Amino acid sequence: MTVLALAVLAAGCGRLPVATDRQEPSTARPEASRSADETGETFEGDIRLAARLGEDFWRRRFAAEGANYRPLREFVPYRSQDGPACGGEPALPENAFYCPDGHFVAFDEPWMRGMYDRLGDASAYLIILHEIGHAVQAQTMSQYRLNVERELQADCYAGGALGSLVAERRLGPEEGDDEELLVNLAAAGDPTDAWWRPDAHGTAEQRQQAFTVGYNQGVGAC
Ligand SMILES: [Zn+2]
After folding, report:
1. If phi over 0 gives left and psi between -120 and 50 gives alpha, with beta otherwise, what is residue 146?
2. Which residue, 76, 89, 115, 124, is the most exposed by fewest CB within 10 angstroms?
3. pLDDT tens digits, one per residue of 24-53
4. What is the distance between the alpha carbons of residues 76 and 70, in angstroms, rounded to a whole number?
5. Could you tell me the distance, in angstroms and rounded to a whole number, from the CA of residue 38 to the centre of ligand 1?
6. CA–centroid distance, residue 97 to ligand 1 (Å)
7. Helices 122-140 & 177-187 angle (0-180, nearest 10)
8. From CA 112, how far away is CA 131, in angstroms rounded?
9. pTM for this structure?
């Protein structure tokens, strides 16, 4: 992934790239981390790396403004129906979420692993950084009237965190990652622009745009 390619792709894509059933392993290999369990070359390693670097980015960002980032208590993998409840609501299958009541992120692990295998390792970074974005919103007391606004800001935060980590060379993306990111965002887009719905996340184009703004301009633009 290069910043330029991402910007060009996002600005110029009338048609999105089509997801293919690629079986190759991940393409992005972070250069910074060399520990055995966090190489960024396995699903588990990418999840851990995304979580650690994502939170580290926000810790530094908060500190730069004289504030304290409150680290998440946990990243909880679950299987389909056995997820942790949040505020009395059961965890949904095929989902990832931030729970303000408990301050943790949880994700359906087989579902996420399936995306990782189908759509590439970018999916792990997108989802984890997006959910950390919700944790940041909880700490900055972001107020939104519409769910879609909250969701697009979390996409923008994910792009901003990723762009900064790449610029700092703490993550070393490789060719094809930009397409992966856009395909992942498109796959997560709403089928219609029903922005008023309480579960609206934004269309494929809106999600790509929000992410790209963050990626190219930083989280301050979110
Ligand atoms: Zn979200």
Report:
1. beta
2. 89
3. 344 444 444 444 455 568 999 999 999 999
4. 17
5. 25
6. 7
7. 60
8. 13
9. 0.82
**Nearby residues for ligand 1 (ion, Cβ within 5 Å):** 151, 154
CA of 134 to the centre of ligand 1 (A): 7
The pLDDT value given to residue 178: 82
What is the 3-state secondary structure of 77-95?
Answer: EECCCCCCCECCECCCCCC
Residue 39 is predicted with a pLDDT of 59
Q: How far is CA 217 from CA 11, 100, 193, 213, in A?
A: 14, 28, 25, 6
Whether the pLDDT of residue 23 is over 50: the answer is: no
Which segments of the chain are extended strands (E)?
75-78, 96-99, 104-108
